[in-house]
Amino acid sequence: MAATTETWKNWAGDQRCAPSQIARPTSEDELAQTVAQAAARGLPVRAVGSGHSFTDIACTDGVLVDTTGMHRVIDADAESGRVTVQAGITLHDLGLVNARHGLALENQGDIDAQTLAGALATATHGTGRRFGNLSTRVVGMRLVTASGDVVEVTEKSDAALLRAARVSLGALGIASQVTIACVPLYTLHRHDQPLPLAGVLDRLDEHVDGSDHFEFFLWPYTRTALTRSTVRSDAAPRPQAPWKRTIQERVIENQVLRLSCETGRRFPSRVPRLNRMMAGAMSEAHAQDQAYKIYASRRDVRFTEIEYAIPRAHAREALERALALVERRQLPILFPFEVRFAAGDDAFLSTAHERETCYIAAHQYGGMEFESFFRGFEEIMDSYGGRPHWGKRHYQSAATLRERYPQWDRFQAVRARMDPDGVFTNDYTRRVLGPVGAPVRP
Question: Which domains does the chain carry?
Answer without folding.
Answer: 70-184 (3.30.465.10), 187-388 (3.40.462.10)
